[in-house]
Amino acid sequence: MGMCEGRTVIITGAGGGLGRAYALAFAAEGANVVVNDIRREAADAVAAEIAAAGGKAIANADDITRIETAQCIVDAALAAFGEVHVVVNNAGILRDRMFVSLSEDDWDQVMRVHLKGHFCLANILGRRWRDQAKAGNRIAARIINTSSGAGLQGSVGQSNYSAAKGGIAALTLVQAAEMARYGVTANALAPSARTSMTESAMADVVKKPEDGSFDLWAAENVAPLVVWLGSELSAHVSGQVFESQGGRISVCDGWRTGPQQDKGARLTPLEAGAMVDELMKQAVPAQKVWGS
Fold first, then answer.
1. Which of 148, 155, 192, 231 is catalytic?
2. In this structure, which long-range contacts are made by residues 251-254, counting pairs with CB atoms below 8 Å and at least 24 apart in sequence?
């Protein structure tokens, strides 16, 4: 019996790449899978692949960026499987340009798919889980979000994507704090894998090795962590952001109050500058922005 036997998971952007790897891995551990992707044929293909392997899945192509259509995804899951226990917010797009070359549409599309797309399903399900918990039901629900190294350290040419992914990391912290009382955990991933997005941005870096050596960039490498986070075994872990690539997992050390000085009275501008200079000597240097 798999670790997710009887649990139902909605995975967005599951028609390929990381989402497909997650869907197959969850199904292999007994989960019922809702394969959501705006590319209906891709979603159908993954659902069929799961069914052929003896698993349970349905395909869905509803829009994750509006509450009305995101509700249709939840309704389809409930009609097919009776309940939803996990949402994996994975879908994303890129509109890469240097900051001063970004158009308003470049900004809005990335925010809509990434940041608002993370809001809609989790908000609908969060309200459902809260109401069930208040009614006395035992809840073991999971929100699994997708941030990025670009969101954690920044990435040259990706200010829109970095801002959205940084927002998702912060959203995860708040979700974890607010939803803990209802039996819901929230965690985020910053995965490194070969997907249509990374192949379009750095094809030479993520290409599959031809010598048969370990494929560091295979999407399947990230899936075990996602499945475990979606299981009931992960109840003690919430509010974390994990980086995952190949066989490596790291826990991200987020923003925290560092070195400080306090005059105990209002500073002059020169005093503020002098204090900053002293604090910078004590501060741990930030990781470099990707591409810098």
1. 148
2. 252/152, 252/169, 252/190, 254/152, 254/169, 254/173
* 58-to-35, 43, 125, 171 alpha-carbon distances in Å: 6, 8, 18, 28
Domains of the chain: total: 1
Residue 102 CA to residue 250 CA, distance in Å, equals: 32
Asked about 22 being catalytic, the answer comes back as no
List, for the chain, all residue ranges whose pLDDT scores fall below the cut of 50.
Answer: none
Residue 98 vs residues 105, 107, 114, 149: alpha-carbon distances, Å: 14, 12, 19, 17
Catalytic residue among 147, 159, 165, 244: 165
Q: Does any domain span residue 49?
A: yes
**DSSP one-letter code for 145:** E
Residue 231: active-site member: no
In a domain? residue 287: no
Q: What is the CATH number of the domain that holds 212?
A: 3.40.50.720
The distance between the two most distant Cα atoms of the chain, rounded to a whole number of Å, is: 71
Q: Which of 161, 162, 238, 244 is catalytic?
A: 161
The pTM assigned to this predicted structure is 0.93
165 is catalytic: yes
Instruction: Enumerate residues 6+ apart whose C-beta is below 8 A from 162.
Output: 148, 150, 151, 154, 155
Q: Is residue 290 part of a domain?
A: no
Residue 188 to residue 241: CA distance in whole angstroms: 5
Of 196, 189, 195, give the one whose Cα is nearest residue 225: 189
Q: Is residue 15 part of a domain?
A: yes
DSSP 139: -
Query: Residue 119: how many CB atoms within 10 A of its CB?
Result: 20
